[in-house]
Amino acid sequence: MSEESKGRAVPGGRIGRLGGMGRIVGGIAGGIVTEGARRLAAGERPRMNDLILTPKNAARVADQLANLRGAAMKLGQMISMDAGDILPPELTQILARLRDNAHHMPPKQLDGVLTAEWGRDWRRKFRHFQAHPIAAASIGQVHRAEMPDGRTLAIKVQYPGIANSIDADVDNVATLLRVSGLLPRELDIAPLLGEAKRQLHEEADYERERAMLERYRTLVGDDPAYVVPGSDPALSTGRVLAMEFVAGERVEVLEAADQATRDKAAEALVRLMLRELFAWGVMQTDPNFANYRWQADTGRLVLLDFGAARVIRPETQAAYHRLILAGLSGDRDAVRVAAVETGFLGAAATERHRATVDRMIGVILAKLDQPGAFDFGDRAFVPVLRQEAATMAEDRDTWHLPPVDTLFVQRKVSGTALLCARLKARVDVRGMVEGYRHASFGAAGG
What we know:
single chain; alpha+beta; about 450 residues; four-stranded mixed beta sheet
């Protein structure tokens, strides 16, 4: 049995979780000493960041976060996806393990949670309850169960102590980033940390997630491109979410599909993201690949996990609208102004690095202006952007955090683009966006 298939109890107490974070820091410190000595012996003079961002240190972080689960692991997932084109490839690859490689609860701990939620005779509710989870993630794990009436359900069970550990976990990870020197002390991340805590508390509220799940079912309606499972309110609680089990394969299987199938799936992904942003005003902001499944027989995307679904403010919708229309116009100055207005770029960085910003905008506009469908598989422009961004990033005095609402929307936009790139898909993005040229923004959920 592999280490990943074994159950490891989730540390529920403050001391246990603090000890886990301490092992992360201690492991990194030991790795820095070892790697630093090796490089000095080789005649190098390494920078501290070079010693921190090593594959071995990343592996230590990934393993400990996978054991802690909860907010610590969720933040690791966010870093691996949101910064996929900026972080070193080795670090990105290792952190990506956190997307779906959490350890699961051992049977005794699982029984304790379900007994607390359903009572001691909870097994009598089912014809069969599969003890080994079919999925394990940051907040909870999912089990397959058969009901006496023949229905098959997916039961998501929250890890014990996760909700109570969120604030401390976020603060501990923030401290780790500060101590490591990866973030400048002058950068005010308090608003982001506060919002991260708020969203993670929402994700730990399974009653809220069930409401969002049903809301999405209504919004998607009878669209043949998607499947949203229904919920079972009788078995759902604040820490257990019971849903209809919907069959489907990991979305990554599409990488081996023919071009037409990959394009169809990617078109559905992009169309969903645009509808969320410009039509519904409600968005599932966690584009983790594990939150999608593919039904080859029906050609439909299965949409899962609505804990990170959130209402998007009309101001944010309008800001994205202005930025996208500026991009469609091909006007470099209009894009730069819109990027500052929406908070994507800081005014100080734009003023100090005007030439670099303009070169980056030029690269993006050239890519958007190519005739035909947008080729997500053509990533030739990414290294150019990475190099330009690295130049700006060296000027830490001009680092800037976009508005929190924008950060969560951008996470979905970037994640969707990343998945389309994995599929090497070709999508008429321009034509799809044109359909929202005259969109207006008011009450959410329309």
